[in-house]
Amino acid sequence: MSEEGRLSLSGPEVIETVAGVEEFDSRDRALVWRVTGGKHRFLMGDCDLLVRDEIAAFRQAAIDCLAQRDDASPTLEQLLAQQGRLAERQRRFAGMRDGVQVWRALGVEAPDAVPMLEADEFVALAGRLRTHA
Length: 133
What we know:
Number of helices: 7
Helix content: 40-55%
Order of helices and strands: HHHHHHH
Distance between the termini: 16 Å
Shape: globular
Low-confidence stretches: none
Radius of gyration: 16 Å
Strand content: under 5%
Structural class: mainly alpha
Number of strands: 0
Number of domains: 1
C-alpha cells in the first residue's frame, strides 16, 4: 500500500451518516487520510508493506511478497490469536477519533509530523511500533 491509498470497510460519508458529523467529519480530508490512509493502516498492521507511490516500488513489493508467500491455510489457533489481537486493539484504542491519537498511544514521538514523512522515513519509524493484528 502507498501513503496515497485508503483502506476502510465504509467510506467517510457512510461513517459520517451513521455516526454523525460530530463523530467523523467526512469533509475533513486530512482526518480521512489519518484514519484510512496508508501510513495509519501500516502502523495498525492492516497492510504488510508501505511503499512510495511509484510503479517500480509496487512492483518490487509484489515480488518481495510473492517470494515470502506461505501457501498454507491458517490454523484455527492462528485465527483465534488474530481475533484476540484485534479485540485487544479495539480495547486499547477505544474512544480515539483520530490517527494522531492512535500514533501517540503507539509511541510515535512527533505524531503531528507523520503526514509529512516520506514513505521510507515513515517505515523506519513505524517498524518498531506496528501492531500486528
